[in-house]
Amino acid sequence: MPIRLLSSEVSSQIAAGEVVERPASVVKELTENALDAGAKNISISIVDAGRILIEVADDGHGIPANELELAAARHATSKLIQSEDLFHISTLGFRGEALASIGSVSQMTITSRIESAKEGARLKIDGGVSGKVEKIGAPIGTVLRVENLFYNVPARLKFLKTDVTERRAIDSLITRYALAYPNVRFKVTDGNQSTLQTAGDGDRRSILAALYGVDVAKQMLEVMAIEEGLSLTGFISPISLTRSNRKEITFFVNGRWVQEFSLTTALLQAYHTLLMVGRYPLTALFLEIAPEDVDVNVHPTKAEVRFRSQDKIFSFMQRSARKALLAYTPVASVSPQLWGARSASMERREVGIDWSAALSSDDLSVNNDPSQNVESKSSNLQPATFASVPLLRLIGQIGSTYIVAEGPDGLYLIDQHAAHERVLFEKLMAQHDQKSIPSQSLLTPEVVTLPPQSAKMLTSQLPFLNHFGFEVEEFGANTFQVRAMPVLFAGGDPSSALRALIEDFEEDEAPLQTEVEAKLAARVCKRLAVKGGQTLTSEEQRALLNDLEACASPRTCPHGRPTMIHLSVDALERQFGRKGPR
Asked: Thinking of the domain 206-328, which architecture would CATH place it in?
């Protein structure tokens, strides 16, 4: 085929594909433009997850009427003049591609007015084709209205995910920018429902409270560090407040939301030895650095950056987060006790605890340091490989995490958390199979506040939760009231149970109703089972062993992790030299 130049229509759609991947991409570009324009109030409205309508209105500087058509042209920007400006970018936008790209794959209307003008101007763009600029009455600022996104690119439209997923992406984006710009008042409306509204008073902790609830906001630890031209502010969570994935780890560099692997690695290094495997902190950190020391022109979406002094940034991030973490939550150690002795708190516990109910999270020990756990690296320690568990005689507990027991064929080390997970899981599934999951009303209903993206998912799944023994109802914007829980989890934390149902979903996963019910049950049981680091009385240890012996699959927890390891008598004799050299 002969070589030919692409038409302007095709080239603009190709360029749009790099910038506008989904409705959240449109919201991001328009919000950043509003912030660059000095807006103090930003209102965002979406309909049908952004497919039908995305409207972003701000009270920024506005666009002069004679520059309105130029603003929608490709490579037109007011933020760069010469190539040298690329090396000290201080604005969020600079490519001059956003409006042109959005306009080429939608029906876009720009309405704007500057302070010195008596009237505003309006420009309509349909699939990249601009109309004429019209005079119109308008307030100071700009309103960008994007309708029928991807109407002329049906292939791209087909690749969009479900409405729940697309809404979640938009909400996740706006909540991050609300944290990064606490002096800006954000308002997000989904259809006729307001999903987010901030005060714009500069108080980041109040925004955290609006997003995650007052209890979470109170627990967050403040980070403030300055060193050699670097500044780090924001919040990190204590070791008692974690998530099962990295979605809630947020970084802004010079006001720009970035997804930089090195920053995440540095942060996790600060939590090294303090968190359980598979648990991640909830953070919102804001790094300020000289513009010439960071390159933001490495990706069309500007989500990736490169640092001139990578090691310096890594070290600064790690030390600052670690210092704040240890300053607020010093690492506790397990107090040495005589073998078999009981503490005063153990004596006060009721004997014969009902292991069909999860223990309250208030009983958890402050020590969650995995480094305190007993290691099992000997080649003679192997996961149990039999179908059932023999009768076990309790010996004691090690590190407030492992139960030691004797069986007819040797020694057993039982992970109390994994074992309790298995016990709760089999009891819950047995009740579910019999279609009789009894509920117990809470004396005081628990109020749980979730981020907007999580709240929307949960709202659509309330009937399913009620079927599983929970009684949950909406209690305001992004807030829910738990009135009852399954009897099996009596005494457990309703907030933890509710969060366990939603926080593990990846972006491309299906909503709860298509989730395998066993997997859902396993998540709840994992959250409400007793934890490593929790001291149990002898009666509680013995009750757990008895329940584990009665399980159909006692060898592993519902997630496949071993509940126990076995050290045979033969292996012991070899270790002590009773059967000759090893």
From this structure: 2-Layer Sandwich (3.30)
Q: Which of 168, 171, 169, 194 is nearest to 477 (CA)?
A: 194
Q: From CA 36, how far away is CA 90, in angstroms rounded?
A: 9
Domain boundaries, the chain: 8-201, 206-328, 350-569
Q: How many other C-beta atoms lie within 10 A of the C-beta of residue 327?
A: 11
Is the whole model's pTM more than 0.85, yes or no? no
Residues 427, 445: Cα–Cα separation, whole Å:
25
Pair of tokens at residue 497 = 């149970």
Q: Identify which of 55-64, 290-299, 473-482, 511-520 has the greatest average pLDDT.
A: 55-64
Q: What CATH fold (topology level) applies to the domain 8-201?
A: Heat Shock Protein 90 (3.30.565)
Q: Which fold has domain 350-569?
A: formyl-coa transferase, domain 3 (3.30.1540)
Per residue in 245-281, pLDDT (tens digit) is: 888 899 999 888 888 888 999 999 999 878 877 789 9
Q: Which DSSP state fits 204?
A: H
According to DSSP, the β-strands at 249-253 and 256-258 are antiparallel
pLDDT, tens only, 405-430: 988 888 899 999 989 989 988 888 88
Q: Are strands 41-47 and 185-190 parallel, antiparallel or unpaired?
A: parallel
Whether the Cβ atoms of residue 530 and residue 416 lie closer than 8 Å to each other: yes
